[in-house]
Design brief:
Blueprint lengths: L1 H20 L20 E6 L2 H4 L2 H8 L7 E6 L6 H5 L5 E5 H10 L4 E9 L2 E6 L14 E5 L4 H12 L9 E5 L2 H9 L4 E6 L2 H8 L3 E6 H6 L8 E8 H6 L1 H20 L1 H10 L5 H7 L5 E4 L1 H18 L18
Helix pairs in contact: 11-12, 12-13
Keywords: Signal
InterPro entries: UCP027386_ABC_sbc_TM0202
Organism: Neobittarella massiliensis (ex Bilen et al. 2018)
């Protein structure tokens, strides 16, 4: 009898042990119920500037517990501060330059997906002290001060010059500076000057140089080419593992992100206060710059077509700008 009782007791302990092992520890917050995902905090990263301006209403709502998405936000001055954390699984979603998404995809064996375009072009040709530049032809023989050598601003400028019949190597002289502030300082010392500047530095420069004017909007000029692509500054990328594990929460996040961009574009003054709150740029500058930052939300097939065309342009200029090769179709997130 004792042996039988001992055997039954042992069997009961084994049964309890395996029952406990059957409870999956997801490491997430909340409970898992049948047919539902475990809730998790989305770890979001963004860069100072237009790239992060569209998300400020969502950040505010999440902070005040008014959104369904729970967000832990990390701001950085450089993408180099964020991308290692994404690849190590310490961040889930980033708002970064569009071509960086392609580079990360190629360098991580497809570990990231591109969710949506969140910023179109923010670069402008500006002129101080005159009204001599009103078309690309007017740039022939001129000197342009600019930043972004070896990166997308240079490739975009070269592409648009070429598409408008100018040779970047012989028809214009580009003096490259390391920072937009250097360009502004250079312009300030001259009676007449031409520069390629991004927002919000165009707005900053206009507060320091009274007779500064926007001569050409590179986004609008790109659109005139009507070539099934768009001039894209930045977008949202996600770790593929996160997208596959939390599809419902990712979809809700994207819905709330889109609503946030709509709010920013429709409520510029209030949005500017939030832009300053999240240490992106001061509110007075943000209020003037937001209408020219082309903050948007484009996903699905429209995103895929526009981004494919844009990445093709960069690849043709320099394959390294997209990570050596164009991404495969699984780079483009589909609901």
């Amino acid at each position: 009898m004792k042996r039988v009782l001992s055997a039954l007791l042992a069997l009961s302990l084994v049964t309890l042990l395996f029952a406990g092992c059957g409870e999956k520890d997801t490491g997430d917050k909340g409970n898992v119920s049948s047919g539902q995902e475990a809730t998790t905090t989305i770890r979001l990263g963004g860069l100072k500037g237009p790239t992060s301006m569209g998300m400020v209403k969502l950040l505010s709502d999440a902070e005040e517990k008014k959104s369904e998405s729970q967000i832990e936000f990390t701001m950085a001055g450089s993408a180099d501060e964020l991308t290692p954390k994404l690849l190590k699984g310490e961040l889930d979603i980033l708002a970064v330059p569009a071509n960086l998404g392609a580079i990360l995809y190629n360098n991580s064996e497809g570990a990231v997906e591109f969710l949506a375009i969140n910023t179109l072009g923010v670069i402008y040709i500006t002129e101080k002290g005159g009204n001599t530049v009103n078309s690309w032809a007017d740039l022939k023989g001129k000197t342009i001060y600019a930043t972004g050598k070896g990166s997308t601003p240079e490739y975009a400028l070269n592409y648009l010059l070429q598409q408008n019949g100018l040779d970047p190597a012989t028809d214009v002289t580009v003096e490259w500076k390391s920072e937009p502030t250097e360009v502004v300082a250079q312009m300030a010392t001259q009676d007449q000057a031409i520069a390629m500047l991004p927002q919000p530095f165009v707005t900053v420069a206009s507060t320091q140089i009274a007779d500064l004017r926007v001569a050409l909007d590179l986004t609008g000029e790109w659109d005139k080419l009507d070539n099934d692509s768009q001039f894209i500054t930045a977008g949202l990328i996600v770790r593929r593992e996160f997208a596959e594990k939390y599809p419902q929460q990712l979809q809700k996040f994207l819905e709330e992100y889109k609503a946030s961009t709509d709010y920013v574009n429709q409520n510029v003054e209030a949005a500017a206060q939030l832009v300053e709150k999240y240490d992106i740029v001061k509110a007075p500058i943000a209020q003037k710059a937001i209408p020219y930052c082309n903050i948007t939300y484009i996903d699905g097939s429209e995103m895929k077509t526009a981004l494919k065309g844009y990445l093709q342009v960069l690849y043709d200029q320099n394959p390294a700008s997209v990570g050596g090769k164009l991404p495969a179709d699984d780079f483009y997130y589909e609901k």
